[in-house]
Design brief:
three-stranded antiparallel beta sheet, 3 helices, 3 strands, about 45% helix
Length: about 80
């Protein structure tokens, strides 16, 4: 069985370019992957879910009009 890759807030922010508050709002709307609890006071995200979301947003951005994407942006070259 493979190892599950986790990322913490700083890395998630660096990869997506979205602030903690922006991500939280999108998370509540069901637009982005949800955080997972790592303990009493810590959370993280599954790396493969974040990477898949970035690819999906990038693909949508390249193939669809940008008017439906709102203010979502992905840091270029962050994969």
């Amino acid at each position: 069985m493979g190892t599950v890759g986790l990322m913490r807030e700083e890395e998630r922010k660096e990869m997506t370019g979205l602030s903690r508050v922006q991500w939280w709002r999108l998370e509540r709307e069901g637009v982005v992957p949800r955080r997972v609890s790592l303990g009493k006071n810590s959370v993280g995200w599954l790396r493969h879910e974040i990477e898949a979301w970035i690819q999906a947003v990038s693909y949508t951005h390249l193939t669809m009009p940008t008017s439906g994407l709102g203010e979502i942006s992905v840091v270029a070259g962050s994969l």
